[in-house]
Amino acid sequence: MKSNEVVLALLVLALLTSMALLTGCPPAPEEDAGILPEEMPVEPEEAPGEVTGEEATIDQIGSTTVLPIAEKWAVAFNEANPNVKINVSGGGSGTGISALIDGTADIADASRAMKDEEKTAAEEKGISPVEHVVAFDGIAAVVHPNNSVGELSVEQLSDIFSGEVTSWDDLGVSGMGDIVIVSRDSASGTYESWKDLVVTMDGEDEDRDFAASALKEGSNEAVRSTVAETEAAIGYIGLGYIDESVKPVPVVPMEGGSAVEPTRENVQGGSYPISRELYMYTAGEPEGAVKDYLDWGMTDEGQKLVEEAGYVRAK
User: Fold this and answer.
1) Residues 179, 215: contact at Cβ < 8 Å?
2) Is residue 27 a contact partner of residue 54, using CB atoms and an 8 Å limit?
3) CA dist., res. 314 & res. 278, Å (int)
4) Rg of the Cα trace of the chain?
5) Which helix (H) or strand (E) element contains residue 34?
6) CATH of the domain at 306
7) Could you read off the pLDDT of 121-132 as tens digits, one per residue?
8) 90 in a domain, yes or no?
9) Contact 142, 225 (CB under 8 A)
10) 97 pLDDT higher than 90
11) 129-143 and 312-313 as β-strands: parallel, antiparallel, unpaired?
């Protein structure tokens, strides 16, 4: 073979070898191709302010006395936990407890303890109600600001609301005429508490009941409004509803002594005679968002809101 033919053959062989090497190897990834190995998955970034956790809805129904606390709790808790929606409504303690028994409420607000018949009705439906004391309250007797009455005893209040005393003149208050009694309706826990603590004088006269002439109102606001517009009226409301439109009356305890003003300090100190616990009931031990909500309500933050609502903190 001639030398030039040998050279040509070697060149062809080298070219074929180079082509084989190039087609047999995959190209190297470009540095900016953005391809990562499968063993290194990319975690999706969380949007700024996104809340983790399951969506939840809490239905809270009942006492209008507890309502201001529930409303403040719901707003503050939802701000910190936007994934939890809390629906709050009033209607009275009996309404809330019935809703809990019927399964239409997660929390029943009550300004009185559950009655035995309510507990029985719950048990018949397989529900074991759990009581949570969330605050303390005093119930104030209130009159029109023009009423000159300085104080009343528990016994005098009982006489008024049972209809035994019908004129302000009989109580040494001139110029006011006949007494207009303003009460809550029977679905109200405040109605039950006032009947027990005042009308029956804490069980001293269990036969006593509200006078048939008593006006029945569906909320604390309605009682306050009626008293504020009626000079001869007397009613009763939770401490959180007292404002300048009505005049709270100091009360002499049944054991005697000085009249005690209806204030948070006197309720907390135990000297005001018309005081009670405020409750939230659950159907069994609370779980999930309901438990988180109630636990939060008993923290210092939640209890400060109790005070802001005009009540006495439970802890």
Assistant:
1) no
2) no
3) 9
4) 36
5) none
6) 3.40.190.10
7) 999 999 999 999
8) yes
9) no
10) yes
11) antiparallel
